[in-house]
Design goal:
Layout lengths: L4 H13 L3 E3 L5 E2 L5 E2 L1 E3 L8 H19 L4 E5 L2 H13 L3 E4 L12 E2 L7 E9 L3 H12 L3 E10 L3 H9 L4 E6 H10 L8 H9 L1 H7 L4
Parallel strand pairs: 5-6, 5-8, 8-9, 9-10
Antiparallel strand pairs: 1-4, 2-3, 6-7
């Protein structure tokens, strides 16, 4: 769910300007899952641009306070959500923790890093949502520690119906600063893409898993 239309449009512009998002409908990328995709998103690049980094930090913080109120702790999802989560925690004057993709294989074998106590409220920060599975694994890990997860906020999401269903099944609210729909609108507006490429981009978003197998490129 998008919290603020103006924020969504501005962030989409920023992501396109700094090439954190690339659109190649006629020469698709291959994700680690094997899916073919006309879009590649690397929000780590935003950290290299102070103006964009500040905008994201402030908008994430505003979204958290407006929708969830201030929690006890901010949690980042490894690895993309760690830096932005720490920045948001600093903005709000809150403790910060992060959740690993898998438990550390040595030492304390932690899955959740940082100080957390049972009963504390947490908002999770993620950089990108596709199906939502890795984000929800972090939510489950925090709940297993006895935390009350108020919800999750991401920088960007692809707008997949699968993600909406997965978050609903886990009873976890989530918001994104921008998403695929706003990105395509802004990309067309500022001529990052041509009109004839729109249908390819829209068809991927509605059926990403099998899009590559039916793709016909001249």
């Amino acid at each position: 769910m998008i919290f603020n239309k103006d924020t969504a449009e501005q962030l989409a512009d920023y992501l396109l300007q700094i090439k954190a998002i690339k659109l190649q409908p006629s020469k698709p990328f291959t994700w680690s899952s094997g899916w073919k995709s006309p879009i590649y998103c690397d929000n780590r690049l935003t950290l290299s641009f102070p103006k964009v980094r500040t905008f994201i930090r402030q908008e994430l913080a505003k979204t958290i306070v407006s929708t969830f109120e201030k929690p006890d702790v901010i949690a980042g999802v490894a690895t993309g959500g760690i830096a932005h989560g720490a920045l948001v925690a600093q903005e709000l004057g809150l403790p910060f923790i992060y959740v690993r993709a898998a438990a550390k294989g040595h030492g304390m074998e932690n899955l959740v890093e940082g100080k957390i106590e049972k009963g504390q409220t947490v908002v999770v920060i993620e950089d990108l949502i596709s199906t939502g599975q890795s984000s929800l694994n972090a939510v489950k890990a925090l709940r297993a520690e006895g935390c009350i997860v108020k919800g999750l906020v991401s920088i960007f999401d692809y707008g997949f119906d699968t993600a909406v269903a997965n978050f609903k099944n886990e009873k976890c609210s989530f918001y994104s600063l921008s998403n695929y729909e706003f990105l395509i609108q802004q990309a067309l507006k500022h001529k990052y893409i041509e009109g004839e490429e729109i249908e390819l981009l829209k068809s991927w978003n509605t059926n990403p898993e099998s899009w590559g197998s039916t793709l016909k490129i001249a």
